[in-house]
Each structure stands twice: as structure tokens, then as C-alpha cells.
């Protein structure tokens, strides 16, 4: 069953200007060490950050709270599997909210997809509740 859906569109040029203006202050406030390391390895650093910014916004919407209701930026983070597939992680208040909205006997699975086409970066998040012990065929 779907517990939440969220999407966000971020402007890569705006993120680039924010990086130019605030640098590490912005990076350290919003992004985890893993996200920063990923962006530092990429040619399009601003695009990498913009996609992750959009993912955090989309995740907060899928959690039904938005960022104004107590979720910290770093409570949501994106890493990548070896295949490149993005994976959303939640901690802190975001993890508490996810647990609260997950029905008993279910586990929450967060699906995230990221894309960009300069100057836009987009993320789409779907939170699924899957019965514990279910085996997909």
C-alpha cells in the first residue's frame, strides 16, 4: 500500500548561486558527509546537490509534513547503490514520522528517483508499506 507520494523540482542555477554565496555553510547545514563526498566527485556539483535537495523536499512531502514541521534537512539523505540507483535514508524525526505512519505488521520502503535536465533537477518519492515477511516473485 502507498503511504505517501512527494515530488519536487529544483533549479540547478539557484543551487549553484547558493553554493557560491554560502559554500560550506550551506553544504554542512543541508547535506550529509556522504552526500557531500558524492557531489565533490561529480563534474556537475550543483546538479548533484540540486537533485538531493529535491529528494529531501519530495521525501518531506511524502511523509506528510513538509520541512516546516520539524524534519531537519540531514534527517533525510540520498546515497547510491553500486549500480547507481539512488536510495533514500531517514533518521531522527523523519524516521519517527515514518514509523508512526507505517501500519502494524508492515515495513516501510522508500522509493526515490532523481533526474535533471539543466537548469532543472527533479525528485519523486513514493513510500510503500509492505507486509512483513512478504516475498516478491
Written description of the protein model:
With 137 residues, the chain is α+β, with helices and mostly antiparallel strands. The chain has helices at 12-22, 24-30, 33-41, 45-62, 92-101; strands at residues 2-11, 76-80, 86-90, 106-117, 120-131. It has a three-stranded antiparallel β-sheet. Strands 2-3 form a two-stranded antiparallel ribbon. The chain starts with a strand and ends in a 6-residue tail after the last strand.
Provide a short characterization of the protein structure.
The chain has 137 residues and is an alpha+beta fold.
Question: Could you give the topology of this structure?
Answer:
Layout (H helix, E strand, L loop, with lengths): L1 E10 H11 L1 H7 L2 H9 L3 H18 L13 E5 L5 E5 L1 H10 L4 E12 L2 E12 L6
Antiparallel strand pairs: 1-5, 2-3, 4-5
Helix pairs in contact: 1-4, 3-4
The coarse silhouette is globular
Integer-rounded radius of gyration: 15 Å
- Helical fraction equals 40-55%
Low-confidence stretches: none
Distance between the termini: 17 Å
Report the CATH superfamily. 4'-phosphopantetheinyl transferase domain
> How many DSSP H or I helices?
5
**Total count of domains:** 1
The topology string of helices and strands comes to EHHHHEEHEE
Q: Which topology does CATH recognise?
A: Ribosomal Protein L22, Chain A
In terms of DSSP E residues, the strand content is 25-35%
Number of distinct beta strands: 5
Strand order of the largest sheet: 1-5-4
- CATH classification, class level: Alpha Beta
Decide which structural class fits the backbone.
alpha+beta
The CATH architecture classification is: Alpha-Beta Complex
Amino acid at each position: 500500500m502507498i503511504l505517501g507520494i512527494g515530488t519536487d523540482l529544483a533549479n540547478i542555477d539557484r543551487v549553484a548561486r547558493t553554493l557560491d554565496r554560502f559554500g560550506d555553510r550551506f553544504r554542512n547545514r543541508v547535506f550529509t558527509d556522504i552526500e557531500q563526498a558524492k557531489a565533490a566527485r561529480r563534474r556537475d556539483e550543483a546538479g548533484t546537490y540540486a537533485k538531493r535537495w529535491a529528494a529531501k523536499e519530495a521525501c518531506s512531502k511524502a511523509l506528510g509534513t513538509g520541512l516546516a514541521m520539524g524534519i531537519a534537512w540531514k534527517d533525510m539523505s540520498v546515497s547510491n547503490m553500486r549500480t547507481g540507483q539512488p536510495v533514500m535514508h531517514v533518521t531522527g524525526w523523519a524516521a519517527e514520522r515514518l514509523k508512526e505512519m507505517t501500519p502494524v505488521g508492515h515495513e516501510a520502503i522508500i522509493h526515490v528517483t532523481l533526474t535533471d535536465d539543466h537548469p532543472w533537477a527533479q525528485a519523486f518519492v513514493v513510500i510503500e508499506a509492505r507486509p512483513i515477511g512478504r516475498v516478491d516473485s
